[in-house]
Write a sequence for this structure.
């Protein structure tokens, strides 16, 4: 039930997949809203909420990568050796790279502002970059550019899932009901 099998995704992979998917889409909307704001004392807490959820997503992505080592994901049904399989694998690898690079770049940039990154007002996270205006500016520029790349990858990923998405053993069925 919890583990992946040769035919389908187990509960752990499915919950992680949909939690990360929903979280990332929510964070893209949230992030663009806060980036358009003039930072002030009254909206300062919103940045903290964004950072905390972003770090949560980073944690979930890392857990997912470790879980896939413990419980390998199933091969796509009937697609082995095809160019679609190669494309799907390439998109999956890029998705993970972006899912790691986006929160890490946000964390680097936030650290470089010299302001503490506090996880849900509970834990002060270590700064992973020294205070620097240049690093903060570059970090936020990278953070602001990467999410657009991730959005394009998600569009490809969703198109592929819908293309192979229906019927028994299909991609959507396997990631939905297992
Ligand atoms: C998967 C996780 C994350 C996603 C999808 C995400 C997404 C975004 C997006 C779309 C923006 C707007 C960028 C722009 O249009 O210029 C943004 C801004 C921002 N993000 Fe994130 N973010 C994530 C994680 C993080 C983390 C972990 C931190 C810090 C620890 C962080 C700190 C910030 C800050 C401070 C801004 C505002 C930048 C500004 O005012 O220009 N983000 N984020």
């Amino acid at each position: 039930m919890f583990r992946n099998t040769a035919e389908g995704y187990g509960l752990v992979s499915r919950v992680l997949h949909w939690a990360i998917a929903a979280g990332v889409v929510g964070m893209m909307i949230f992030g663009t809203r806060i980036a358009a704001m003039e930072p002030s004392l009254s909206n300062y807490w919103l940045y903290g909420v964004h950072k905390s959820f972003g770090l949560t997503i980073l944690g979930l992505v890392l857990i997912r990568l470790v879980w896939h080592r413990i419980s390998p994901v199933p091969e796509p049904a009937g697609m082995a050796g095809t160019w679609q399989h190669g494309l799907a694998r390439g998109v999956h690898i890029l998705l993970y790279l972006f899912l790691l690079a986006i929160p890490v770049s946000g964390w680097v940039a936030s650290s470089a502002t010299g302001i503490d990154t506090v996880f849900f007002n509970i834990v002060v996270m270590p700064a992973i970059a020294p205070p620097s205006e240049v690093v903060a500016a570059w970090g936020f520029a990278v953070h602001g550019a990467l999410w657009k790349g991730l959005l394009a990858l998600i569009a490809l990923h969703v198109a592929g899932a819908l293309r192979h998405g229906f019927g028994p053993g299909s991609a959507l069925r396997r990631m939905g009901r297992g």
Notes: The chain has five helices and two strands. Strands lie at 117-119, 123-125.
